[in-house]
Amino acid sequence: VQLLESGPGVVKPSETLSLTCNVSNDFVNAGYTWSWIRQRPGKGLEWIGNLQHDGTTDYSLALKSRIDILLEVSQNQVSLRLSSVTAADTAVYYCARAYMGYCSGKTCRNWFDPWGQGTLVIVSS
Amino acid sequence: DSQMTQSPSSVAASVGDRVTISCQASQDIDKYLNWYQQKAGKAPSLLIYDASHLERGVPSRFSGSGSGTEFTLTITNLQPEDFATYYCQQYESLPPRFTFGPGTKVVVK
Lengths: 125, 109
Hints:
The structure holds two protein chains of two kinds.
Chain A: E1 2-6, E2 10-11, E3 17-24, E4 33-39, E5 45-52, E6 57-59, E7 67-72, E8 77-82, E9 91-104, E10 107-115, E11 119-123
Parallel strand pairs in A: 2-11
Antiparallel strand pairs in A: 1-3, 3-8, 4-5, 4-9, 5-6, 7-8, 9-10, 9-11
Chain B: E1 5-7, E2 10-13, E3 19-24, E4 34-38, E5 45-49, E6 53-54, E7 62-67, E8 70-75, E9 85-93, E10 96-100, E11 104-108
Parallel strand pairs in B: 2-11
Antiparallel strand pairs in B: 1-3, 3-8, 4-5, 4-9, 5-6, 7-8, 9-10, 9-11
């Protein structure tokens, strides 16, 4: 499976950022969990949210009020919408497939693989 | 808020060296700790899952160990292509959230 993110490149402050992740060689509704992860310039990785094949979403508490992750089955894509963006949302945004498995205690078997190449979004007027 | 720690934040090494990176999870995560490698300008890629299992295609000079809250990534016989940043990652189910460590950059000595 290959993932390829695309987006506008530049978004104005207060507007809504929309990104898509095109999935190749597999089907987005084939029982997987899809994730968005971002990386601010020179910084580490920040999980944004997940969308499970049954439509269940889990979002970062820090971003929950501003994000939506959707399956676009007809396009075989996963989309991310982030509203009311500020300069702090400037980052490379990655989509990834999340494996979620057996749960034990307060955690579950999990990993992100594969990842897309990422798309840079700059928030600027 | 969940926090993971990694040490060191940066390590200078030479080809052929042994490099050890530590990661501390915010709570007991059994063996469910993952390591990713990110080369400059590239997306991260899964290196090790379940604390010690190498992803397909990953050279055997990489190894991982640990359980609970303390984990280690070791690179033996460091190769030129191993200079990169390494991140550990955990999952907590209540509430559901994924957390990455701050990263360890392996640089040329």
